[in-house]
């Protein structure tokens, strides 16, 4: 049996297993699909109001498109199965692009990593909007050098579904030589999306998802929440978990929490700018795309996660695309980080959905697993920053950049 056939069999088995786990595991790992995505889609189709257009929404406006598309498939076996089929179909397109004829060892390793990550992270990676942005991000990363305009269009569309692919666009603007094509395409695509929203009467709400995120509290699973979570475990007065019914998520609170909430978004912005500046410096020193982009992209994505006051488990899907590209370009260098990422995915599935009930009761072991997961995310960020700093430098470009001769 050919390597390509084995990869596709693996693809089918992993997606079937993860799809079924969504029905079997506790704590409603597919809850968002039938509790919020389907009602939003049906509301828009029935004329009851369009989220992100006629009313404020926590997501960018294009996020509604896959929710509505899934309605067209629900005749097969319901909306949940329709969603799983939609995600699987999108994954299949990107997987075909990645694998090709399976002659490249690096591409095969990247493909196996992606499948292993999907399996270890579990159903939350499939039954969330983020699962649809992953194949767009992978295809965009693979096409950045050869087809930068197409890559930019895909990453821009993904950004208007969930914001995180903006980190990949930022890294591309820094590391790709044909950056003007990337910038122009991103601006044109964004303008087209905004024009459609405005013409539909949504000018007031087109960017409402930005304020919707900045006003949020500290989500339970976010790294910054660990301080208050352990205080809740210790029974410190005023520190506890609660459910926010406005945004449908569990959060933590405690002494001086409002100050922490207020500082997190500015801190995130500063960290993103600092990492982007580091990438620009390395480019100026002579770093090339293959050595710089994957590490810079992953660094920016991990900053999005580590410094975020929101820490949903599906956020782990964000790290797939830059790691896949890193394995394609230099599998020996990226294999240790890929292994660390797989461990992080497994810990995340243990946290949610497997032990989530224990976590909500501030159980010591469950909190310890979550803490280990968050510490590993920080370690991965440090690793990638080191590799940005150590990105191979082209000698001639470095000499030109450092030449101070008048």
Task: Provide a descriptive summary of the structure in words.
It is built from 17 helices and 3 strands. The N and C termini lie far apart (64 Å). The chain has 406 residues and is mainly alpha-helical. The chain has a 3-stranded antiparallel beta sheet. Helices cover 68% and strands 3% of the residues. It is globular. The longest helix has 35 residues.
Topology (elements, then pairings):
Blueprint: H1 3-24, H2 31-45, H3 64-71, H4 79-99, H5 105-121, H6 130-142, H7 148-159, H8 166-175, H9 179-199, H10 208-214, E1 218-219, H11 226-234, E2 240-244, E3 249-253, H12 257-285, H13 289-306, H14 320-354, H15 356-360, H16 364-389, H17 395-402
Antiparallel strand pairs: 1-3, 2-3
Helix pairs in contact: 1-4, 1-5, 2-3, 3-4, 4-6, 5-14, 6-7, 6-14, 7-9, 8-9, 8-12, 8-13, 12-13, 13-14, 13-16, 14-16
Structural class: mainly alpha
Spatial gap, N to C terminus: 64 Å
Uncertain ranges: 396-406
Percentage of residues assigned to helices: 55-70%
The largest sheet has its strands arranged as 1-3-2
Beta-strand percentage? under 5%
Sketch the major β-sheet: 3 strands, antiparallel
Q: Rough shape?
A: globular
Q: Name the assembly state.
A: single chain
What value does the average pLDDT take? 91
Number of domains: 1
Instruction: Please tally the helical runs, counting DSSP H or I stretches of 4 or more residues.
Output: 17
Instruction: Give the C-alpha Rg.
Output: 21 Å
